[in-house]
Design goal:
It contains 17 helices and 13 strands. The chain is of the alpha/beta class. The two termini are 39 Å apart. The structure holds uracil.
Length: 431
């Protein structure tokens, strides 16, 4: 068997055998398959697809390419949530403390910003000193002791995905349903969460452009997780315009803290939706009861206290939870005004790109992030606006004309606006 023959078979649209898939993934992990071969394989999969059976084997082989964390023997259900990536989506920063306050353990492995999308680990590093690099033992101990931890997976977890993702990122092969499903689920299955909620985005700012494709991806990932013995659910949600009102690390942390203090907006709505589903599944209570408890954890301040506990446990400056001046915005501000009168349309993609280009995200792996870069929305998509009124503020330290033009271009005036539901569909435990 050779990597060449496997690529050739997939190029011709043939279904690969379990043996072929495991051979290829072993080659990715041990270096005997080259980057060029990985690229050709990924393009063949993108163009020819995979059966659900092939995708399940690919996921399993990738999961086993590195260390797999065994389920620790502490009591209580462990929950995890994974989003396929969005703009101004800080639900993790709200959901983890709320669930912990309800007694649901959160073993949350997160990622860094990818392309125009923000990453939870970058946002958590807005708390000066926050350590996202926990060892498997530290991670497990913290989940046991205080109920939750949020960290990056170690280098020894799913090494096949690390190589494959880096190749996909530069060969236009990210947006393939079987490749995304195996990449996401291999990382979820290498961890020990019992209950997993997947937030699969569609729209302008997401990898999947149509809700139908997002739902197909969600169903495939749910079936992979269930086959591996996990309790799974998934929400298909819209990412045409930013979820919250803030983009950029410090600004998004400020906003998540505000939601934990009672602010009500779309970020709060979606975070509570996820909490309701996960708490209901983990605690075996009705969704109405789960929602009431989640809301109470915010009203009583218990969730905010949990955030402070997690920040402190991971070495972050806990004072920033209570004092937003410790999460500063950049020194220059440019106001964006409505280019006409009518309904406002806002592109998540254009704003995500603008934030990155101003230094708020990475242009390439390893770039330093400016946590103070921010875009604050003053109006929401669908709002009626008058020409010249302020729709957003852009905070930056280093002026980049192209980035500012991209930010301005994100706001369009339309005469009729078709509102999208926040949650397009939900795949529950029984579905
Ligand atoms: N997130 C991942 O982890 N992998 C993908 O392929 C896409 C999004």
């Amino acid at each position: 068997m050779t990597a060449y023959d496997i690529i050739d078979a997939k190029k011709r649209g043939m279904a690969l055998s379990e043996e072929q898939i495991r051979f290829f993934v072993r080659g990715i992990a041990d270096g005997s398959v080259s980057d060029v071969q990985i690229a050709a394989f990924c393009m063949a999969v993108l163009l020819r697809g995979m059966t659900d059976g092939e995708c399940f084997v690919l996921t399993d082989a990738m999961t086993r390419s590195g260390e797999v964390a065994p389920r620790p023997n502490f009591t209580g259900i462990c929950a995890d949530k994974h989003s396929t990536g969005g703009v101004s989506d800080s639900t993790t920063l709200v959901l983890v403390p709320v669930l912990c306050a309800l007694g649901v353990r959160c073993a949350k492995y997160s990622g860094r910003g990818l392309g125009h999308t923000g990453g939870t680990l970058d946002k958590l590093e807005s708390f000066k000193g926050f350590n996202v690099n926990l060892s498997a033992e530290q991670f497990e101990r913290q989940v046991e002791k205080i109920g939750g931890a949020v960290a990056g997976q170690t280098n020894s977890t799913v090494p096949a995905d690390k190589r494959m993702y880096a190749v996909r990122d530069v060969t236009a092969t990210v947006d393939s349903i079987p490749l995304i499903a195996s990449s996401v689920m291999s990382k979820k299955l290498a961890s020990f969460a019992d209950v997993i909620l997947l937030d699969v985005k569609y729209g302008d700012g997401a990898f999947m452009h149509s809700p139908a494709d997002a739902e197909k991806l969600a169903r495939l990932m749910v079936s992979i997780g269930r086959k591996a013995g996990r309790k799974m659910c998934a929400a298909v949600t819209c990412m045409d315009s930013p979820l919250g009102d803030s983009i950029g690390c410090n600004a998004e942390v400020r906003e998540a803290v505000a939601v934990l203090k009672g602010k009500k907006n779309d970020l709060a709505k979606l975070s509570l939706f996820h909490c309701e589903k996960l708490a209901s599944l983990a605690l075996g209570i009705s969704e109405a009861e789960a929602r009431a408890r989640a809301e109470e954890s915010i009203a009583s301040g218990a969730a905010l206290k949990k955030l402070a506990e997690i920040v402190e446990a991971q070495g972050g400056d806990v004072r920033a939870v209570y004092d937003e001046s410790l999460l500063p915005l950049a020194k220059h501000c440019e106001v964006i005004r409505a280019p006409g009168s009518g309904r406002l349309k806002i592109s998540a993609l254009a704003l995500g790109k603008a934030c990155c280009a101003l230094g708020g995200g990475r242009q390439k792996e390893g770039d330093e992030i400016d946590h103070s870069v921010a875009i604050l929305l003053k109006r929401r998509a669908g709002d009626p606006v008058q020409e010249g009124e302020t729709v957003a503020e852009v905070y930056y330290n280093k002026r980049e004309e192209d980035a500012l033009a991209s930010a301005r271009g994100a706001f369009e005036i339309v005469q009729t606006y078709e509102p999208q539901p926040l949650v397009y569909s939900y795949i529950g435990e029984e579905d």
